[in-house]
Amino acid sequence: MLDQFALRAELADHYDLTPSPDLAAEMSGIYARMDRVVAPPDWAVFAPYVAAINKLKAERNAVILAHNYMTPEIYHGIADVVGDSLQLAIEATKVEADVIVQCGVHFMAETSKILNPSKTVLIPDMEAGCSLAESITAEGIAEMRAKYPGAPVVTYVNTTAEAKAASDICCTSSNAAQIVRAQESDTVIMTPDKYLAQNIAQQVPEKRIVWWDGSCIVHERFTAQDLRDFREWHPGTRIIAHPECPPDVVAEADFSGSTSGIIDYVTTERPEKAMLVTECSMASNISDALPDVDFVGPCNMCPYMKKITLEKVLWSLHSMQGAVEVEVAVADKARVAVQRMIDLSRKLSG
Ligand code: SF4
């Protein structure tokens, strides 16, 4: 990939990306979705990119799948589908367009490619990784199998295609408890997130859950004391934690759920003040739709997710570079693990 200056110069040769209050005003319908969190001068900067990306998207017959942790200008400005990992994986199976641009991290783009191998799947920055995905390999899974013979391996979708291919079934934070409960064996191996596994072990006490020692660098930063301090500082705040947080943090929270579970909870409950114990963009992305909720709390950003910018999305659609490939034999095995999760999740959700 070009460095930022070369990329900017190349884009400037093909598109007028000068900040434009007039274009920003013309696109006020899109801006209305994010005007609580994006200032007008910033929107004047973003609008030319959003206009260029949306035009190019139609020309390339592309769709943009964006994770809930994307910045508001991506989430509200250019995405066709937004959601958590499970929702994006399911949507990827339905895509009819020729090109998928994955606004998320690399393992998500791999999942889209695995589920939709005939499509071109682009990731705007190949270095958008994930501390969880980097923590586990197929060899690590083989070690766990050797240590716990016969136990099924339930692997979080936040993993590489090789790790998925070495697993029996995948899970996401929204369906992990269901998937683990549905395993016939008394012992279940969960990889790679130790905190998700420990949180699920509390919800599924009938199983002996053993785990790999991985963690998410965003969620592991929160502590139970942070949450107690926060409650004292902002009394009445409803605290909602992602299950990638350590168990004592989840225990301090009023509710725990995946990013889509968090959105459903806040949308239904409408607390006066809410602290989302997860990646910072989540609150920004839902705050315009929930004007009566005051989102408070620290801003912990995922450095991998934040590698995806409007500029890089435009570059990837312009150059068609950044195509994600997965070796066929690996993709075939990984697809089995992901598809088992999707099928079981659908069946158990009725
Ligand atoms: S928030 Fe955590 S789990 Fe999600 S991509 Fe970033 S490092 Fe990975």
Radius of gyration: 20 Å
Helix and strand element order: HHHHEHEHEHEHHEHEHEHEHEHEHEHEHH
Q: What small ligands are held by the chains? A: iron/sulfur cluster
Instruction: Supply the CATH superfamily name of the largest domain.
Output: NadA-like
Tell me the strand percentage band: 5-15%
Strands side by side in the biggest sheet:
2-1-3-4
Shape: globular
The portion of residues assigned to helices is 40-55%
The CATH architecture of the largest domain can be named as 3-Layer(aba) Sandwich
Counting helices, strands and paired strands, the structural category is: alpha/beta
**Terminal Cα span:** 45 Å
- Would you identify the regions where 5 or more consecutive residues have pLDDT less than 50? none
Structural domain tally: 3
What name does CATH use for the topology of the largest domain? Rossmann fold
* Average pLDDT: 95
- Number of helices, counting only DSSP H or I runs of 4 residues or more: 18
Largest sheet: 4 strands, parallel
Quantity of strands, as a count: 12
CATH class term of the largest domain: Alpha Beta
In short:
48% of the residues lie in helices and 13% in strands. The chain has 350 residues and is α/β, with parallel strands linked by helices.
For the structure shown, list the relevant keywords.
Rossmann fold, alpha/beta, 350 residues, binds iron/sulfur cluster, 48% helix, 4-stranded parallel β-sheet, single chain, globular
